[in-house]
Amino acid sequence: MNRRPGLSARLKLTISYAGFLLLAGALLLAVVWLFLLRYVPDGAITAEPVRSWPEREPGRGWPDGPAPPHIPNRTDLQRAFVPPAAQAMAFLLVFGLLGGWILAGRMFAPLTRIADAARMAANGSLSHRIHMEGPNDEFRELADVFDTMLEQLESHVSEQQRFAANASHELRTPLAISKTLLDVARNDPRRDQGELIERLDAANTRAIDLIEALLLLSRSDRRSFTREPVDLSLIAEEAAETLLPLAERRQITLDVTGETTQTVGSAALILRMVTNLVQNAIVHNLPAGGTVTVHTESQHDTSVLWVENTGYRLPPELVSTFTEPFQRGTQRIRTDEHVGVGLGLAIVLSIVRAHDGTLDLTPRSTGGLLVTIRLPRHVAGIVAEWRPLDR
Predict the structure, then answer these.
(1) Which single residue of 155, 169, 277, 323 has CA 20 to 30 Å from 254?
(2) pLDDT per residue over 287-296, tens digit each?
(3) pLDDT of residue 317 exceeding 80
(4) What is the DSSP letter of 375?
(5) Residue 255: in which H helix or E strand, if any?
(6) 189-219 confidence digits (pLDDT tens)
(7) Of all residues in the chain, what percent are helix, strand and coil, respectively (each to 5)?
(8) Residue 266 — left, alpha, or beta (φ > 0 → left; ψ -120 to 50 → alpha)?
(9) Is 47 helix (H, G, I), strand (E, B) or coil?
(10) What is the pLDDT of residue 301?
(11) 4: left (phi over 0), alpha (psi -120 to 50) or beta
(12) What does 13-45 look like in DSSP terms, one character per residue?
C-alpha cells in the first residue's frame, strides 16, 4: 500500500522524550520565577543601618562607618541565572534526543524482529519463528502470539495444498474415465452403447457428488449459515429413517436411543453431518449381522451425539487419518455402489468446527468405531430450545 513518507516511530518517541525533558526543565524555571524571583525588587536595594539601643555611639556604624554590602536585585539575579539555565536546557535537549534515540531503539528492537518475521511470512516463508527470549512483557507476548499464528497458518496452508492436490486427483479420475469411454465409443461404433452410457453416467455422477461435497465443505468452512435452535434428537431420527432401507439391505440393525437434546446451528448442515456418520457406520460394518447405534444426550451446557458401529478392528494410527480429506483406510475401501468420495468424515469435522464443537474417533476393542460429537447448547445469546423439525 502506497503511503506518504513520515517520521518513524523511533524518531517520534525520541522527540517525545526530549520534549518531556524540556517541559520538565521549563516547569522548574517557571517555579523559580513564580516563587522566588518575582518577589525580589528590581531597583537598588540598600541595607538599613543597625542602630544600637538606646543611643548609638558617634563614629560607629552607618552612616559614619563603612558602606553596606551590595545586595543583588532582580535584574542582577536574572543576568546571573539565565545563561546557566539556557545551557542546562540545551544540555537537556541534547541528552533527551541522544538518550531517547538509544532507549527507543532498545524498546523497538523486538518489534523490528516481529516486522522482519511478518515480512518473511508475506514473502511466503511460513516456517520462520521469532522465538523471542527474555521476560514476559507486551512485545514478548506479541511475538509468542505471532509464532502461534504462523504455526497455525503453516499447518492450514499445508492442509489446503494437500487438499487441492487430492481434489485434483479425485476429479481427474472420473474425467479420465469419461474421456476413455468417449474414445472407446468413437473408435468402436459397434460396441454396446447402453453399457458405455451407463458407465459414463456413473463416472459423471461420481464427479458431481465430489463437486457437491467440495461445495458443502467450503460452505461449512466459511460458516456462512444462520444459527437457530435445532433438536439434535429429531435430526438423528430423521437420518436413521432415511438410511433405514440401506441398513435393512445390508442386514444391519439400526437403533436410535437417548433423550431430547437441543443445540444451536444450521439444521441442514447438522442433518448432513449425522447422515454422513450413520451412512459410514452402515457401509463400514460387518458383512451381515452388524449393529449401528445413534445416541443423543445432554451434559451440562453441551449436547452430545455418538454413533457406534460394529466392524473390523481398526488400529488407532489408521483412525486418526479418517478426518483428512480423501484419506481412506485400507480396510474401509468399498467397491460397491455406496463408495464415497473420501470427504464424509472431513465434512463432518468441518461442520463440527463450524458449530464450535468437538469430534472424537475411538476404535472399539471388539471392532468397529465410536464417534462422539459435542456441540454447545447456546452460542452468542442464542439459547437452544425445543423446536419442531421441518420435514
Answers:
(1) 323
(2) 889 999 999 9
(3) yes
(4) E
(5) strand 253-258
(6) 777 778 778 888 877 887 787 777 777 767 6
(7) 55, 15, 35
(8) beta
(9) coil
(10) 86
(11) beta
(12) HHHHHHHHHHHHHHHHHHHHHHHTGGGS-SS-B
Q: Is the pLDDT of residue 65 over 90?
A: no
> What is the spatial distance between Cα 90 and Cα 191, in angstroms, rounded to a whole number?
101
Q: What is the mean pLDDT of the chain?
A: 80
CA dihedral 272, 274, 280, 282 (to 10 degrees): -120
Instruction: Please enumerate in sequence order all residues whose Cβ is within 8 A of that of 265, keeping only pairs 6 or more positions apart, or say none.
Output: 225, 227, 228, 230, 354, 355, 375, 379
Scan for cell 435430526, then name that residue: 235
Check: CB of residue 334 under 8 Å from CB of residue 320.
no
For residue 237, give the C-alpha cell: 431420527
Helix boundaries (H) for 223-357: 232-249, 267-283, 316-319, 344-354
Most confident of 4-13, 44-53, 248-257: 248-257
Using alpha carbons, select from 153, 142, 110, 148 the residue that is nearest to residue 129: 148
CA angle 134, 140, 141 (to 5 degrees): 140
Matching residue, cell 506518504: 4
Q: Quick check: 294 and 332 in contact, CB under 8 A?
A: no
> 162 or 138, which is more confident?
138
Neighbours of 21 (CB within 10 A): 20
pTM greater than the 0.70 cutoff = no
Length of the chain: 391
Task: Compute the distance between CA of residue 160 and CA of residue 66 in angstroms, rounded to an integer.
Answer: 102
